[in-house]
Amino acid sequence: VIGRAMSLFYILDKYMEPLYALILASLPPLMKMIFFAIVKRRLEVTGFLVIFGFGASVMIATLTHNPRMLMLEKSFVTLIIGLFFLVTLIPLKFPICCGARKGERFEMRPLNYLFIKQMFPLGNIWVVETNQEKREEDKFQWLWREISSFRVGCYVSTAYWGCFMSLEFVAKLMLIFSPMSLDALVLWSNVLGLSALGVAFTINILVSRYGIIKMKKDVNNWALINDADIVKEGDQTCLEGLL
User: Which residue, among 55, 91, 86, 100, has the nearest Cα to 73 in the 3D structure?
Assistant: First the structure.
């Protein structure tokens, strides 16, 4: 998608002003997203943010007569998402006063906790402690309550991606106000952006692997300290398969 947009920009740039070339080059992926939203009759949050980012960047570029500002289109989206990541780090707790869950307490958890729970729907576990009945619990709720390394991992990974996405916006602003030409800006903003994203994902994978190893050790230590077993269906002990 990025390659096609860049190619279209370089072609159109020969026949019209850079501002209009950038706007037209950004339209195909935007129109594709709008088309699927109409067909599916549903506009997802990401799609709304992309449309918002495009509209905001076009408005700023038009008002300032600076086509470079159009390069902020996707950065607006990453900035909003990054700030949302960071906001979820605030440990808010308050009672729910209405709805089906009235009387329960709301606890804000890091956004990566929710992502992990949706990406790995591992269901429930049975916890058997000495002289106590076997009880069924949601696996992620149990990990959050009992395993500190799991909580720390969720906070650290959420802060990591929140800072990365927010700093991407700052880096893009620095490129926009640099002395390089518009053609060079289009090229290097995409090259550096993809490179930084690749490095960020690599670091995230390596750190996550270490975190999983640490959590498995903590789960086993918890079982030893509490003289307990964690089992799945069929009462088969599954300490190693918990994570």
Answer: 55
Contacts of 185-189 with CB under 8 Å at 24 or more apart are 185/68, 185/71, 186/6, 186/9, 186/10, 186/22, 186/71, 187/6, 189/71
pTM over 0.90: no
Distance CA 177, CA 181 (A): 10
Structure tokens at 75: 């950065």
* C-alpha to C-alpha distance for 199 and 219, rounded to whole angstroms: 30
Q: How far apart are CA 125 and CA 139, in angstroms?
A: 6
Q: What is the pLDDT of residue 236?
A: 42
Q: Which amino acid is at 187?
A: L
Q: How far apart are CA 18 and CA 67, in angstroms?
A: 6
pLDDT in the model for residue 162: 93
Torsional class of 218: left (φ above 0), alpha (ψ -120 to 50), beta (otherwise): alpha
- Among the listed residues 71, 55, 64, 63, the one whose alpha carbon sits nearest the alpha carbon of residue 21: 71
Nearest to 67 by CA among 124, 17, 127: 17
* Cα 140 from Cα 122, distance rounded (Å): 8
* pLDDT reported for residue 72: 75
DSSP structure class, residue 237: B
**Mean pLDDT, each 10-residue run in order, the chain (243 residues):** 56 66 67 70 59 68 74 78 90 71 74 83 63 71 87 93 91 86 82 88 91 87 74 46 47
Q: Who contacts 54 (Cβ-Cβ below 8 Å, separation ≥6)?
A: 26, 30, 73
* Distance (Å, whole) CA 25 – CA 161: 28
